[in-house]
Every structure is written in structure tokens, then in C-alpha cells.
Amino acid sequence: MIAFPSPRHVRDLASGTREHTLASLALRTLRRDLLGRCERLRDRLGKDTTRCFGEFVDVALAAGHPMDWTLHLDFGVFCGVDEPHLWDELCVAAARRWVRSSSCGESWLAVSCAASPDRVVVGLRARSLDDGPAVLRGSQRVRSHLDQPFRYQTGEGPFTELGTDWRPYRPRIPRQGVPR
Amino acid sequence: MLLGTNVTSAANLRDGERFFAAGLVDFHELLIDNFVHLDPNAVARRLADRPVGLHIMVSRFLDRDRDELARLGNRLRRFVRTLRPIYVSDHLGHYEVDGRLLPELVEVDYNDRSLFTAIARWQDMLACTLLLENFPSGSDNGRGQVEFFEELTRQVPVLPLFDLSNAVIAEKNGGAVTEDWLCSSLPLSACHISGYRTSAVDPDLLIDSHDCAIAEDSWRFLSETLSRRGAPDTLVVERDVQGDTENWAADLRQARRLCLTESRP
């Protein structure tokens, strides 16, 4: 039976078994996806990110998280991130994950967070066979303060400018906080 | 026999075009997920008249609901109509469980024959013959893979996309043995081959990495396949890292040489 490789479950598996190896590998892939490009967040979390990552994934699974691109946003909340530059890094990683996992008609995603409301990150899928995927950082004029921690929008066709149809993203996981 | 390379991005399209201009390859295999949001006519114009195969990675056809899959199927059909590919192939595996995106593609349970219905439905949505890639099994859970493909192809008019290095990986990891593929009644006419490496977690586990030269045992298995089954219609030499163009070209030359010299007449 197929199951998401929960860190709690992996700890219960006998070390050295193939089941343990495969589940550990899958979790390494997820950890690389989550933290691989977040150097400043890794610095903030300290040397051993394994425990923090494991606790987060167990909580995320218990909360029914879809484990999609929004995982980065929830990870930031879980870790108690409040520095704008770390949120910028997490939004970039989230947009990159969206770009990599999308397979339908939408061609871009823009995401912004309340910690730095004038900043926006846009993930662009390939614009042609010659113009590969990209993640852009930009600024936006904010007329009112966001009433949600995160908001995002997606679009089809070439990205030209942001629209007004922002959708809120409510974190699914409560703040736990990681000691500085 | 047509030899090709995979195109996942602008960077390796440039490599593929250099190989095409140098006569090293005959076609490009587009990882269509990365381009499916584009206008297929623009893609066709860009590729001129060069032959293409369409390879699907994340359709999630075993996991998605019917409406979502139908939308993707509509888009893909436009590409099929416009590009008239040599083949359309997909991966047989699970990307999601209970609505959650898995970190990696997970091998199906080959005892689950209800998968045939989902495969037939996806092929109907694509409105063309679907090729399904064999899995680089990570454990003995993959032992029933050859029998599954044999029964599948008897009941549903799909074909295998035979990845030779995946078959080698699977055997070394405890899955189906390579000999069973060659002894089977399955047509092995569309093939892949690529590099693999040992996993960072367990040196006894091989993973399909696409980031290095093709291993000696994969070359040996290609030779064996050629001598017993003849040259395939297509063979794609896959590489997913940038800046390795010379090694990739060397693998292409070796693949061409073997297909010319080792194939059963």
C-alpha cells in the first residue's frame, strides 16, 4: 500500500531494510526541495535541520497538507520566520516548486507575503522552447495592508503584469518557532 | 532506427539541435509537461520539420480526477495533432497519495489489475497509442513488472517504452530480471537509455539519475537486446544535467555504433 513517507513512520522501520532506505531517500528528496535553495533559512535554523524538518513534515501530514508548493509557506510559519529576507527566499523556493510541478495550462504564479507586502515573486514556466523557466523578484505598489499572511495569483499565457485577483493562502500549520 | 535526445529545457534543446546538425541524432523527445502551456503551433514552427516524440512526466493519470485529467488530455491532444509525434509516452507510477504530492514517483502495485482501466481511460483521452515506461524499481516489489506489462498489453492496446537502464537498475535492486524482458512477448521498439548512480543513503541501491555517462552494464544489456530483438525503432539517450555535452555526444556515438553493428538483421 502506498503511503506518504512520514518521518515518524520511518523512525519505526528497521534500519537497513529496503523499505527504510526508500522512505529515507524520499524524505531526503523532500528536504532538498524544501531547504536546498534556502541558504539563509538553513543558516538561521542551525547545523542540524533534520529534526526541525522531521517535526514539520509530521505536523504537515497530520494537518492534511497537500505537500504542494505551499509547503514552503507553511514551513516558514512553522519555524516562526518573521524576517522579510527569509520570506523572500521561501517565496522564491515556493514559486520554483510550483514551476516544477505544474503540468496544466497555467503559465505563471505570483506570490506575496504580509511580512514584505511590497515584494512579489513570480514563477514563470518556459515562455518558449528557447526561454526556459525563471523566477523573478519584483516590487509592487500596495494600496492597503494585506489582511492575509499570503496571497497569490496564477495566469495563463505570457506574463505581462499582475492582475487584481489575488487569492489568499491561509497556512494550515500553526507557528511553532525555532530558537535563533 | 532513429536516435534522439531528451529536451527538458531551452538548454538541452540547444544541445539537441547541435547534435542534430552534426548528424548525431535524428529526433528530439520533448518532455511535454514543461511546454504544454505553450501554443503548439509556435512549438511546431520552432522545431521546423524535425521529428519529435512526446514524453509525459507528471500527468498523474493514476491520481487525478477525471475532469482535471480531461483538461490536460485536451491540451496534449492539440500537441499531438499539431506536432504529429513519432510516439506519445508516459510514466506508470503514483505521484500523489490521499491528495498529497509525493516527494518522488512511486512504483505501482503490479498485482492491482484495476490500473488497466485507468490506463485505458488515459489513452482514450489522448486519442493516440500510449507508450508506458518501465519503472526503475527500488525493491523486490517490482518483481511482477514484466508479467504486468504482458497482461496489460494483451488487454489494453498500449505499448511499453522500454528503458534499458531502468531494467538494469530494477534487476540490481531486486525487481524484475532483465532476461524476462527479452524473453517476453513485449515489443521493445521504443527505447530509452541513460546513466544511473548509487544512492547517497545506501550504496546497494541504484537510482535513475540521468546525470552521468551510461554504465557498462547498460551498454551490455543494449548489445544483448540488439542481438536478440534487433534494432528498436527509436532510442533516446537521456541526460538531465547541463554542461556535459561532450560526454553526452560520446554516449550517442556509442549507441549508434552498437545499433549498427550489434543488431540482429
Q: What is the count of DSSP helices of chain B, taking H or I runs of 4+ residues?
A: 9
- Runs of chain B in which pLDDT lies below 50 for 5 or more consecutive residues are none
Structural category of chain A is alpha+beta
Oligomer: heterodimer
Going across the major beta sheet of chain A, what is the strand order? 3-2-1-4-5
Distance between the termini of chain A: 40 Å
Rg of chain A from C-alpha positions?
Answer: 17 Å
- N- to C-terminal separation of chain B? 12 Å
Largest interface, with Cβ-Cβ < 8 Å?
Answer: A-B, 40 and 45 residues
Count of DSSP-assigned helices of chain A: 6
Please give the number of β-strands of chain A: 5
Radius of gyration of chain B: 18 Å
Average per-residue pLDDT of chain B, rounded, comes to 96
Give the helix/strand class of chain B: alpha/beta
Strand runs of chain B, count: 12
What's the overall geometry of chain A?
globular
Strand portion of chain A, in percent?
15-25%
Dominant shape of chain B: globular
Description:
The complex is a heterodimer of chains A (180) and B (265). Chain A is of the alpha+beta class. Chain A contains 6 helices and 5 strands. Chain A has one domain. In chain A, strand 1 and strand 2 (119-124) form a beta hairpin. In chain A, helix 5 runs antiparallel to helix 6. The longest helix of chain A has 18 residues, at 18-35. Chain B is of the alpha/beta class. Chain B has helices at residues 10-21, 40-47, 66-83, 115-126, 145-155, 164-172, 178-183, 216-229, 245-262, and strands at 2-7, 27-31, 52-55, 88-91, 94-97, 100-106, 130-133, 159-163, 190-194, 197-198, 206-207, 234-238. The model of chain B has no long low-confidence stretch (mean pLDDT 96). The interface between A and B is large, with 40 and 45 residues.
